[in-house]
Each structure stands twice: as C-alpha cells, then as structure tokens.
Write a structure and sequence with these properties.
single chain, 363 residues, alpha+beta, four-stranded antiparallel β-sheet, 10 strands
Length: 363
C-alpha cells in the first residue's frame, strides 16, 4: 500500500508493543521507519523495467526473511534503548510484526507480494483493497499523531492504539468477505450477459470497498463489470474488450512475455500501437489507461519480433468524466463509463490489422 499507510501501520504496531517501555513518540518513530524499510527494494538495480515491475515486493517482503532480520534489527534497538535491555523477546517480536504487517497489507492489494518466498515464489495478491484506502489509513493516522505528540505513555493511548489496529484489521477481513460476495454475484451477471467467463476476479475500485471492478477473462476477450454494494435493479454495467492473443502468440517463448504472463496470472491484453507490441496488465488501472504497460515486440518485415522491454507510458491515465462516473457509481446509481465504451471498437480494429501483419496474412 502507499507509504503513509505503511508508516502509520508500523508506528501503531510499535507503539502498542513498545510505547510503554520507550515512550510513545520514540516507539512510533522507530515503528514508522521500520514499516517503510521493506519498500526500499525499489532502489535495487534491475535488468529492465519488467524485472523492476515483477520483482518489486519480492524477498524483502517475505515473512521468512523477516524472521531472520527481526533478531538482528531488534538487537540493535535493545542496545540503543536502555529500557529494552530486559525486553529482547518483546523487541524482536515488535520488529517482526512491523515487518509482517507491512507484507500482509501489501498482499491484500492487487499488485501482490511474494510473502512466502522462497517456499512459494509467486506473489500473493488478494485485490480486496485499493493501494490507497482512507478508511483503513485514517484510524491509524489518528493514533500515530497522538503518539508523536506525547513523550510519556498513557493507558488511554494504549487502548486507542490497540483499538485502531483491531478496527483496521477487521476492515481488511471484511474486504475479503465482500470480494467473495461480489465475485459470486458477478458470475450470475456474466452468465446472463454473454455467458460465463473462464476466470472471474473482483478488484476493489479506488479508495473504497463498496465499488468493484470485476474482470471476466476468456481466451480471446475480457469483460469489465462494475458492481456497487448499493446497486439497485439497473442493468449490469459490462464492457467487452479484445485480448488479441494472436498478436503476442509469436513471442510466447520470450522471457519478457513469460514474466508478464506469470505476474499478471494471465490477466493481460496485447495491442499493436504505432508498430509496437504492448502488453497491458488488466488488473491495475481502468481501460484504456492501464497503470502497467510494456513494449516487448515491434512490427517488422517478418512480422512481430522481440525487442528489449521498455515501459509504455500513456499520456492520459485518467479519462475525462471518470471522477464523476466514480462518484455516481459509489452511490449505486447507474452511469456509463464513456471512456471505456469509446475505446472498444477503435482498439479492436487497430489490433486486427496488427494481427494480420504478424501472421503474415494479407488484407
């Protein structure tokens, strides 16, 4: 999740466990700093943009690596703070929980986290919360600000801090339950509007867990369905788009393709844009402005050939009218997402031309 959330979560965990020993201000600062430590893997050098994308939240987010790191860092805290000299076990536990909770809430997002590396190397990405969720963050932010303003411990602060951690953890569990309900509901809606897809994945929409984007994935197409918990009896809001698997078929053995296929769990589409083969992760962002898109091939005389991967950056990530659409759908009111309706036919025609060229088929 976002850096502020990771800071306040780590600070709250540390305050709850160590605040009585070293004071709430020091405990919050230590926990906040440790809570951001796993994300420093963004400064590690990677071979190309795809590696940077798929290997972020890797070993630095593993609960097994955390188990090895906690005694080392914990011992440093024991030697730094005299009040912790006789509290080694508690200190080690506090460090471990700060690290583990960081990884766990990251795993709740759609991006995912390799939380069980190296035993289970694949990223775990539940997708039941957005990377920024004010309802989760604000209770933790409130108690952390309180802790930072106090030099001495109070039982009242301790109760509120533990309460904030319980409430936010319950919120995370609630998001999973809602996600399962939305997927169950979406399967029926898909079945009544074009047939049951091969895979269904419900992802929390920005900043909340009441509006959801559900992807219905098939071999040659995907459908986006938007479901609000406050929806009435209005028709299902479904948008169909091509996946264009024939465009990238010739590159399926390339390392870049295989990494993106693995990381996205198959939720990607291929497009030919200005002669470049672009793979987009369907899970992050809204059609057509996906957050993560990569060029892995280029159209040449002999069809589409692999190239060194590069990040494909759209000039527009948020389409005109998206905020109004989001606010309307959050209320459970019907609304058409114009940007997505408009993108369907244009993208499909451009991709078909590229498909013929890659397959060596004349017009």
């Amino acid at each position: 999740m976002d850096s502020l959330t990771q800071f306040v979560l780590g600070a709250a965990v540390s305050t709850a466990l160590l605040g009585k020993k070293i004071g709430p201000r020091k405990a919050a600062l230590v926990g906040g700093a440790l809570g951001t430590l796993p994300d420093l893997d963004v400064f590690l050098p990677f071979d190309d943009p795809i590696d940077s994308f798929v290997y972020h939240r890797g070993w630095s987010h593993s609960i097994f690596v955390h188990a090895l790191a906690a005694p080392v860092i914990g011992e440093g805290l024991v030697r730094l703070f005299k009040a912790l000299r006789d509290e080694r076990v508690l200190t080690y536990l506090a460090v471990y929980l700060v690290f583990v909770t960081h990884a766990m809430i990251d795993a709740m997002t759609v991006y995912g986290t390799r939380i069980f590396w190296p035993i289970y190397p694949d990223p775990v990405g539940v997708g039941s919360v957005f990377i920024i969720d004010p309802i989760y963050t604000l209770p933790l932010l409130g108690v952390v600000i309180w802790a930072l303003c106090r030099g001495t411990w109070s039982e009242r602060l301790g109760r509120w801090t533990k309460g904030a951690l319980i409430v936010t953890s319950s919120y995370m569990l609630l998001s999973i339950a809602i996600q399962q309900y939305v997927e169950w509901k979406a399967r029926d809606m898909f079945a009544g509007n074009g047939g049951q897809p091969e895979q269904v994945y419900a992802i929390a929409a920005p900043f909340n867990i009441t509006l959801w984007k559900v992807i219905g994935l098939d071999q040659d197409r995907y459908r986006n369905l938007y479901v609000s918990l406050f929806d009435g009896d209005q028709p299902a809001e479904i948008y169909e788009h091509p996946r264009n698997p024939d465009l990238s078929a010739c590159l399926e053995r390339s390392e870049a393709y295989q990494k993106l296929d693995w990381f996205s769990r198959g939720y990607f589409r291929s497009d030919l844009i200005d002669g470049k083969l672009v793979l987009s992760d369907l899970r992050m962002g809204l059609t057509p402005g996906y957050a993560f898109r990569f060029v892995i091939g280029e159209l040449g005389e002999n069809g589409i050939e692999p190239v060194d991967p590069e990040r494909f950056v759209d000039s527009v990530r948020v389409e005109e009218g998206d905020f109004d659409w989001l606010l309307t759908r959050l209320q459970g009111l019907p609304a058409e997402r114009v940007a997505e309706s408009r993108s369907e036919s244009d993208v499909k025609l451009a991709s078909l031309d590229g498909c013929r060229a890659s397959a060596g088929v004349s017009g």
